[in-house]
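Crash report, auto-generated. Payload:
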Amino acid sequence: MAKSLMIVDDSATMRKIIMRTVRMSGLDIDRTEEAGNGIEALEKLDAAPVDIMLCDINMPEMSGVELVKKVRELPSSVDTKIIMVSTESSQELIDDVIADGANGYITKPFTPEKFQEKLSPFMN
Amino acid sequence: MVDEVCLNDALLAGAKEVFETMIFMDIEESSEPDRQVEGDALLGSITFKGNLEGCLTICCGVLCAKTIAVNMLGMDSGEELSKEETHDAIGEVTNMVMGSVKSRVQDSVGDLEVSIPSVVSGRGLDSSLGDGTTKILVKVGIEDEYIAELSLLYRASSR
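Recovered output after restart:
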């Protein structure tokens, strides 16, 4: 079944690259949303929840870690699967953000195969 | 503590990984060490702090930067590339190379806290952190066509 997806990253270029990589991965996505920061992401999620959110960590205004905590407080988004996409690769940070409510982690640089591997479990 | 050779290798390996995976371009350490980035250029930089503090920079000519952006975005030849997209692309490359270097050295230097990247344009661009700083400079050839300068400026943390 096709899923809806939101990409949250302060870089418009990175959002495009992630979008292209998701397309190349062959995953069945029927609706995509983009947000340039955590506040915009929360507003969009409140209006129309998504199945999967791909979220950067190092963002101005609101970090990806803070955003995960706030998304988990939204009743409409309790089932949203959150995958962090970041250059940050320390195991401690990954463990912390998973404990805060994220469901997975992809480090940059990434490949379509990596998206396939990490997102497939949430596609059914 | 990590040594210069180790950081030099990490910088080159990190850049290679990013260019090959995300930009689909081959890079090699330049066989022309005297060749410079000339004319209008972009300089991406990102700072880090931890047991080491400093910054990583990537400097390349505008034409090289545009080619990197076009490849990263998968744009067709007819599509227009904006100045913002080019700057954004170089910022992201800088960010990803920093992430790749960090993952390679964190066993020896510990975790590094990394800033958000910034990009400036101009001629004769250079970066400095003042006295007591070590600078590693790696010149790379990109697709045998362009030259780019990768640098890592660092010193032991004062904290």
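Post-recovery validation: The mean pLDDT of chain A is 94.
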